[in-house]
């Protein structure tokens, strides 16, 4: 009889009748009930946290800052917790919260103490302290809820820290902005100071140059004043002498005027006499001319020859030449006397005018002499003042030079101050309102977490699906052999080959296991999104073939004890497969179990097939399951060969399950 016929015979045996058929159907549905219902119940427990009651105690009284800003951090936290939908928050007093957590009405409580706001804002004072959030849990209520509450509180703590830090950073940055504005004003003032100091330095140089010119002028003035004083003294002495010398001048000039008048009168007489003589001489000369004419006429009438007449006339003219010259001299002398008389008259008049003016002149000379004395005294004072001015200008020049040096130093210092403030201005943060908000948020909450899931499970249930599907497949294989016999007694009694007997005992369970997997997969797909559904189904089929082979081998080799061993192997796989926490978190003594038992490879393969991602490790998973499949069939074959010999223990077993 072939292994197929043995399998068909066993299937007919376990399905002969209504109740056996129902039992087979129940066996097929066992993995479904375990896998799908457990996944359904745990699909997304975090989405239903709002059904868990939690107590919220708000004792915070708030605080008011010096600028009038009101802070009610406790109330803000309470409002955000209620709006978050995490847990069913009940705001109660402290006594009710404590009693409720102890009695189980609330799974835990969260208390915000009275000084919560004051503590959060204490960073701006001299005694900063942390704000306290009090969490009261009771593991008798639920351990995992307490753990989840710790995560919620940690998120609240982070949110509050970010908010408070952002507010503090905002004030800090506003302070920086104020410092920047004040420093910019100081830099502008320093710039103006530097410009003014530069101008002052330049002006001090120009002032020094002008002061030198003033000193030179003062020196010249002093020298000129000294000379003027000497000249004025000499002038005063000369004027005094002149005044003394001219004291008699009015009388002398009057006498001179009188004498000049007398001389003028005498000269007038002489001139008159001379004019009379000149007139007589001129008449004489005219008479001689008439005589000459008459002589010449009479000689010509007498018939004297012309040459004789001419000679005679020449002789006459020669004879009268002295008379003519005498006449000319008389005429000249008469003119000179007239001019002398006129001049004498003018002199007499001038002398008279001089005599009239001399008293005023003498008085003016006296006045000038007196003024010369005053001038001498004034120029002496001018000399002394000019000397004082010269000395003062010298001192002023020294001060101006020191002022110029000081102005240069002030200018250099102002330039350094300006450059330092300008350079420092660039080092002071001065963000605008938008940048200040972003910077404050960054300072208050410097770390932002962005989780990138390359292959996301999507929910808590989907995350556990590989583990529960593998577990359900093992349990399905286990319960199959509560109904299916590992080895056919008829085949063993008939002496059929061990391979055919082993395959004949395994095939019914394998077929039912495949049915279990197909049904379970069809339903679980409604709950979990498979990235590679065909691959996942084929891998689950390989898994059930391997698991049924393992359980079949244990039952065939060990009998009733094999069922117990299968349960032990199930427990060992539950703790070593890494279905919940990573297997690396296991105690190191369990590492060999993870490496040897098949459940870990099932979980690994299903994770990559359900969530997607690389399939580089899937070959090892398939290889291990294939080895278990073949190894289980080999062990079943060995058991079938051994059980062809009937022993007393087989006829009357000590344990029947």
Walk me through the structure.
With 657 residues, the protein is mainly alpha-helical. Among the domains are: 3-44 and 459-651, no CATH class; 51-179, abc type-2 transporter like fold, CATH 3.40.1710. The protein has 18 helices and six strands. It has helices at 3-14, 18-41, 73-84, 94-103, 116-120, 143-245, 249-301, 306-427, 433-444, 460-480, 489-494, 498-524, 533-558, 560-576, 591-596, 599-611, 618-642, 648-651; strands spanning 53-58, 63-64, 70-71, 88-91, 108-112, 134-137. The strands form two sheets. Strands 4-1-5-6 form a four-stranded mixed β-sheet, with helices on both faces. Strands 2-3 form a two-stranded antiparallel ribbon. Strand 2 and strand 3 (70-71) form a beta hairpin. Helix 1 packs across helix 12 (498-524). The protein starts with a helix and ends in a 6-residue tail after the last helix. The model is unreliable at 442-454 (pLDDT under 50).
Question: What's the structural blueprint in terms of helices and strands?
Answer:
Layout: H1 3-14, H2 18-41, E1 53-58, E2 63-64, E3 70-71, H3 73-84, E4 88-91, H4 94-103, E5 108-112, H5 116-120, E6 134-137, H6 143-245, H7 249-301, H8 306-427, H9 433-444, H10 460-480, H11 489-494, H12 498-524, H13 533-558, H14 560-576, H15 591-596, H16 599-611, H17 618-642, H18 648-651
Helix pairs in contact: 1-12, 2-10, 2-12, 6-8, 6-9, 7-8, 10-12, 10-13, 10-14, 10-16, 12-13, 12-17, 13-14, 13-16, 13-17, 16-17
């Amino acid at each position: 009889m072939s292994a197929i016929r043995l399998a068909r015979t066993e299937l007919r045996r376990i399905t002969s009748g209504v109740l056996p058929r129902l039992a087979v159907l129940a066996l097929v549905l066992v993995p479904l009930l375990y896998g799908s219902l457990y996944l359904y119940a745990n699909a997304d427990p975090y989405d239903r946290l709002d059904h868990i009651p939690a107590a919220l105690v708000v004792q915070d009284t708030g605080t008011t800052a010096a600028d009038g800003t009101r802070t009610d951090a406790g109330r803000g936290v309470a409002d955000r917790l209620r709006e978050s939908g995490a847990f069913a928050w009940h705001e109660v007093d402290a006594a009710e919260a404590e009693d409720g957590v102890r009695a189980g009405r609330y799974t835990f409580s969260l208390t915000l103490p009275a000084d919560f706001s004051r503590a959060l804002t204490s960073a701006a004072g001299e005694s900063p302290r942390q704000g306290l959030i009090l969490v009261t849990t009771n593991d008798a209520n639920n351990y995992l809820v307490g753990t989840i509450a710790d995560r919620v509180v940690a998120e609240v703590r982070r949110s509050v820290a970010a908010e408070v830090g952002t507010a503090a950073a905002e004030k800090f940055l506003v302070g920086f902005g104020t410092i920047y504005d004040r420093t910019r004003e100081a830099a502008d003032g320093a710039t103006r100071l530097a410009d003014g100091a530069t101008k002052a330095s330049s002006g001090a140089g120009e002032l020094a140059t002008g002061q030198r010119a003033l000193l030179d002028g003062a020196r010249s003035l002093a020298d000129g004043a000294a000379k003027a004083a000497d000249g004025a003294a000499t002038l005063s002495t000369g004027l005094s002498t002149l005044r003394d010398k001219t004291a008699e001048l009015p009388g002398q000039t009057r006498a001179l005027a009188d004498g000049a008048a007398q001389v003028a009168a005498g000269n007038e007489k002489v001139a008159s006499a001379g004019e009379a003589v000149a007139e007589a001489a001129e008449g004489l000369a005219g008479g001689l001319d008439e005589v000459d004419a008459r002589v010449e006429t009479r000689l010509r009438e007498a018939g004297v020859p012309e040459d004789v007449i001419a000679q005679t006339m020449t002789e006459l003219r020669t004879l009268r030449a002295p008379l003519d010259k005498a006449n000319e001299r008389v005429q000249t002398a008469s003119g000179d006397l007239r001019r002398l008389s006129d001049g004498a008259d003018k002199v007499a008049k001038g002398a008279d005018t001089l005599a009239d003016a001399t008293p005023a002149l003498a008085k003016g000379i006296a006045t000038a002499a007196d003024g010369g004395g005053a001038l001498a005294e004034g120029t002496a004072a001018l000399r002394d003042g000019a000397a004082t001015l010269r000395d003062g200008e010298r001192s002023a020049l020294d001060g101006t030079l020191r002022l110029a040096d000081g102005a240069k130093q002030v200018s250099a210092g102002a330039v350094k101050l300006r450059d330092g403030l300008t350079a420092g201005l660039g080092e002071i943060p001065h963000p605008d309102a938008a940048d200040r908000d972003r910077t404050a948020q960054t300072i208050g909450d410097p770390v932002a977490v962005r989780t990138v899931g390359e292959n996301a499970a999507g929910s808590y249930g989907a995350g556990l699906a590989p583990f529960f599907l593998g577990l359900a497949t093992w349990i399905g294989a286990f319960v199959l052999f509560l109904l299916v016999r590992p080895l056919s007694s008829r085949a063993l009694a008939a002496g059929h080959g061990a391979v055919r007997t082993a395959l004949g005992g395994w095939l019914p369970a394998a077929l039912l296991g495949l049915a279990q997997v197909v049904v379970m997969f069809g339903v679980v797909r409604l709950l979990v999104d498979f990235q590679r559904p065909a691959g996942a189904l084929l891998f689950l089929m390989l898994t059930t073939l391997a698991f049924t082979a393992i359980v079949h081998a244990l039952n065939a080799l060990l009998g009733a004890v094999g069922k117990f061993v299968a349960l032990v192997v199930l427990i060992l796989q539950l703790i070593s497969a890494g279905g919940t926490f990573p297997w690396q978190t296991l105690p190191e003594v369990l590492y060999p179990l993870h490496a040897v038992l098949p459940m870990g490879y099932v979980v690994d393969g299903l994770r990559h097939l359900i969530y997607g991602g690389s399939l580089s490790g899937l070959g090892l998973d398939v290889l291990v399951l294939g080895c278990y499949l073949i190894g289980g069939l080999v062990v079943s074959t060995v058991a079938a060969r051994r059980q062809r010999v009937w022993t007393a223990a087989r006829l009357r077993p000590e344990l029947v399950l």
